[in-house]
Amino acid sequence: AVVQLLEFLSEPSKFAASNPIELALVEVIQRRLAPNEQKRLEELRKRGEWGELTDMEHEELITYEDQLEQWRVERLEALMELAVALDMDLLTLNRQLVSESKLFHAV
């Protein structure tokens, strides 16, 4: 449940930051793997489900997962700090960020 909350709270957005501190927090919140790294991670996860990873690939997968877990923690901390800076409760801020994210991703 905690990981799902962190993933939900970490959806990217086009939130307009009004100062350098807010901008830095938004950058942490929006941080993502590069497209080629995301593709590799998905490949490793899929192959890992079938037990098809070499030891080296398994270590690579663990490295990716560790990095993403660290980013989730940093995103949540940045969301909390931004909520305080904007004098906004976390759920309201998250709703704003997620609704902007949905508009951004709509095609």
Q: Give the CA-CA distance, first to last residue.
A: 30 Å
Average pLDDT value? 83
Shape descriptor reads: elongated
Largest sheet: none
Element order: H for helix, E for strand: HHHHH
Which class do the helix and strand fractions yield?
Answer: mainly alpha
Gyration radius, to the nearest Å?
16 Å
Number of strands: 0
Q: What is the number of helices? A: 5
* Range of strand content: under 5%
Task: Record the SSE blueprint.
Elements lengths: L1 H8 L10 H11 L4 H15 L5 H31 L4 H16 L2
Helix pairs in contact: 1-4, 2-4, 3-4
Could you explain the architecture of this structure?
The mean pLDDT is 83. The protein has 5 helices and no strands. The protein has helices at residues 2-9, 20-30, 35-49, 55-85, 90-105. It is mainly α and 107 residues long.
Features:
107 residues; mainly alpha
Describe the structure in brief.
76% of the residues lie in helices and 0% in strands. By secondary structure, the chain is mainly α.
